[in-house]
Every structure is written in C-alpha cells, then in structure tokens.
Amino acid sequence: MILSQKLENFVLHCGEMGSRWGFNRTIGQMVGLLVISEQPLSANEIAEALRVSRGNVSMGIKELQSWQLVKVIHVPGDRKEYYAPNGSIWDLANKVFEERRKREIDPTLTLLRDSIIEPAESNEEAYAQEQMQQIHDLLETVTKWSAELQRLSPEQLQTLMKLGSSVSKVIDLKDKLLKK
C-alpha cells in the first residue's frame, strides 16, 4: 500500500501526535492510517504503508486493542485478520479520554485522597494539603464534567461546542444580573 503525499503527511503527523495522546509514534501512525483507510487493513498492509516491521505492527495492534481503538475484521475465505477503527471518530476520542482517565487521572485522585486524609503534622504539610485538596477538587470536577460529555451524542457534543463563547457570555450576564 502506497500513500499519497497528502495522506502520508497526515499519518506522519498522527505519529507525532501519538506521544501527546499517550501512545508511541508508530501506534499514532497506525491510528491515523486506519482512520483514513476506507477498507480494513491487514497487519502486512499496515507494515508496508508505514514502512515498519510486521512485529512492530503486531505489538501496536495489541496496544490499540487494549485501548479498544481497533477491531478485528474477518473476511470470508481469507485467513488473515484485518483491522479497522472501533467506531466513529467520536467513539475513538471517548475511548482515549476514558483510558487516559483510568491510567492518569484515577491514580492521581487516589494519591491525593490518601495524602489529604492523613492529618497534617506541620504548617508546611497543612498548606500542602490545602493545595492538594484544590487539585483534587479540580480533577474531580473535570472528571465528572467529562463523564457527562461522554454521555452526549456526537450531535449534542457538536451543538455544545458550537455554543462556545456564547456560554461564557450567558455566565457573564448572569453574574452581572446577580450583582445588581
């Protein structure tokens, strides 16, 4: 499989973004390639398109399956396994958010709860616990908010995002009215 320059640029960029999403470069490229491929791809086709080893693709597929980002497709009469994105772009984004929450936010919240629950032994610890409580509260709020967003349909999310700055204008107006 040979990619046009435009498609290759996109796939390479996805690889660069991979580290920001919580993946390595090859896995980011694999996600990008699978997302833009109209038909499911075999591991050999992925390896050829990305110019990486078949073993690297196999490890990447396992990682993507652990994130629930790819699904296996079986073609009748063909013994090979083919891979495709496990849902829409919105579904994939939700899965990445959910996995990152499990891998990053939840352990941080646990550490913060454990640190806050113990009584402070000094003024320095008391101050630190106050700061940790604020971090905890922020992460809890963001986590609850993101869970609510994940329950929305893609259409509802798009509507919400289109509201954009209008929401902040409504909040500003509410604040002004409450001050009077």
UniProtKB/TrEMBL annotation:
Database matches in SUPFAM superfamilies: Winged helix' DNA-binding domain
- Please report which protein family the annotation says this sequence is part of: Belongs to the GbsR family.
Q: What is this protein called?
A: HTH-type transcriptional regulator
State the Gene Ontology terms under molecular function.
Answer: DNA binding; DNA-binding transcription factor activity
Question: What does the organism's lineage look like at the top?
Answer: Bacteria, Pseudomonadati, Pseudomonadota, Gammaproteobacteria, Alteromonadales
Domain annotation HTH marR-type: ranges: 33-80
Question: Which Pfam family, giving just one, matches this sequence?
Answer: MarR_2
Keyword DNA-binding among UniProt keywords: yes
Please name the CDD domains in this protein's record. HTH_ARSR
Record keywords: DNA-binding, Transcription, Transcription regulation
